[in-house]
Amino acid sequence: MAGLSKSRIAAFEQCPRRLWLQVYRRELADWGEGTEALFAIGNEVGEAACALHPNGVMIEAEPDLAAALETTARLIAEDHPGPLFEATFMHRGVLVRVDVMERLPDGGWHVAEVKSSTAPKDYHVSDLATQVWVLQGCGIDVRSAAIRHVDNRFVLQVPGELDGLLRDADMLGKLGGIIADRDDVVRAAQAVLAREEPQTAPGDHCSSPHDCEFAAHCRRGEPLPPEWPVTVLPRGAGAAWQARGYDDLFDVPADRLSGVNAIVHAATVSGTPHHDRGGAAAEMMQWGWPRAWLDFETIAFAVPRWVGTRPYQQIPFQFSLRLEQEDGTMTHAEFLSTDGTDPRRACAEALIEQIPAGAAIIAYHAPFERSVLRYLAGCFPDLSAELQDMAERCADLLPITRRHWYHRDQRGSWSIKKVLPTMADLNYASLEVKDGGDAQGVYLEAIDPATDPDRRLLLREALLAYCERDTWAMVLVARRLLVESV
After folding, report:
1. What distance in Å separates the CA atoms of residue 111 and residue 84, rounded to the nearest whole number?
2. What is the distance of C-alpha 124 from the center of its chain?
3. Using an 8 Å Cβ cutoff, are 83 and 101 in contact?
4. What is d(CA 394, CA 373) in angstroms, rounded to the nearest whole number?
5. Of the candidates 193, 213, 229, which is a domain's last residue?
6. Residue 460 placed within a domain
7. Contact 100, 49 (CB under 8 A)
8. CA atoms within 13 A on the CB side of 216
9. Which of 87, 135, 320, 445 has most Cβ atoms within 10 angstroms of its Cβ?
10. What are the record keywords, sorted (predicted)?
11. 429: burial class by Cβ within 10 Å (0-12, 13-18, 19+)?
């Protein structure tokens, strides 16, 4: 029978079928976008946790886990003072690798499960309970157990000095009932693996606490959803109608809808876009000239790299700027830092140099651009006045678009990547970088010292092309809103 692990126990508790598929049919998995990035963040935080204990011992899983089990047992028997990283134990067919084990003065052990989140989550407690259950089953004297998570109040003062980055949330007092049930949980999980694939029906558990990588497999053979499901109605309205028994948007009575939901319904059923040119024009007339169309790209490191930054703080490394005059002439400027140094000062100076005083700054979802400008203003007191003034002058194209345009192909979304193809023969499909997540991944590769210089140039060109597309998209959306028909 296949063995169990902490992650497999967690999969079983979410859905027995997920556990079975993880063990026997992994080729059916469909990992969602961003999974690789999440693993990278977790690895980065894990490495930081080890770096905080330079005298610790890493227990390698080479040549195999049997060797890790043997090494762990030997170090424990020798009263190793610790810390131990990835200490490996097995009890009743369940194998765990403990992120950090620290020897306490009384000879007992403190164990920590390292997480990249900024606070413990409910499912973390279950993971920790499985580890403690295994350790106790192996005779380890566990005196305390914690979720070691990122403290987002930490500010890097000296490069590489990470004391204070992680903090422990003690959980041992919350584990008793869960640990007491672990025998039954393990038996049930093992029984599932001894049988054929469970036929658990899809449901809410498919996305809680994690999106299941086998959801598409489990839903095969189900009736196809309607072409225009009621869930395209925005702001939770679709879910409310679904709860009333409606699946197809076409079946929803038009006279029971109002506001944006009525607009979405009418445009979807008729196939005719909603376009209020006059309303859009009236709002955009309030903008002054010249107009600076601005888009930032940012990166948020779980482990801060630059002095004065905090975990998960959005750091701007790139912007695209189109400066449009009242006579229609337009110039493009851009900033991108890929040398791996702190880009904030250079970014702030480039903004001040390239955006004229008094220009109307236009963004799509302006609260983000405003937050970046205000953040930079707080970083550099000598530039604060100009940057704060820019933040005050930042206007937002998104709510204007939301109020005055809807095409059914947007499918309930007004993101610029959904709106643009409904207005112009232009999209992001041909670009190497297609969204902000791609941009962050490409940036990380570009600033990696191990990246080949020729490769770095290609990555730089891809980032520039993507950010430039964002500002051109804004210009096109604004222009199309002002024409009589599209």
Report:
1. 10
2. 18
3. yes
4. 10
5. 193
6. yes
7. yes
8. 8
9. 87
10. Plasmid
11. exposed
Cα dist. 26→13, 20, 23, 213 in Å? 18, 9, 7, 9
pTM score of the predicted model: 0.91
Instruction: Compute the mean pLDDT over every residue in the chain, rounded to the nearest whole number.
Output: 95
Residue 182 lies in a domain: yes
Sheet of 360-363, strand order: 330-336, 315-324, 291-299, 360-363, 394-396
Tell whether 476 is covered by a domain: yes
Q: Half-sphere exposure (CA, 13 Å, Cβ side) for 482?
A: 12
d(CA 137, CA 130): 11
What is the rounded CA–CA span in Å between residue 453 and residue 446? 9
Q: DSSP assignment, residue 167?
A: E
Instruction: Map tokens 């040549």 to a residue.
Output: 63
Residue 269 amino acid letter:
V
Say which residue the tokens 């750091």 belong to: 315
Structure tokens at 9: 């126990």
As given in the structure block, the two tokens for residue 5 are 């692990």
Which of these, 83, 73, 155, lies nearest to 112 by C-alpha position? Answer: 83
Per DSSP, the three-state class of 4 is: strand
Amino acid at 440: Q
Name 244's Cβ contacts closer than 8 Å, sequence gap at least 6.
none
The total number of structural domains that make up the chain: 3
Predicted local distance difference test score (pLDDT) of residue 63: 85
- Strand 84-91 and strand 57-58: the pairing is parallel
Please tell me whether residues 352 and 404 are part of one structural domain: yes
Q: pLDDT (tens digit, 9 = 90+) per residue, 235-260?
A: 899 999 999 999 999 999 999 999 99
Q: Using CA atoms, how far apart are residues 409 and 221, in angstroms rounded to an integer?
A: 26
What is the predicted pLDDT for the residue at 225? Answer: 87
Q: Domain range holding 260?
A: 243-272
Instruction: Round to whole Å and give the CA distance between 334 and 294.
Output: 10
The CA distance from 377 to 356, in Å, is: 17
Q: Say which amino acid occupies 446.
A: A
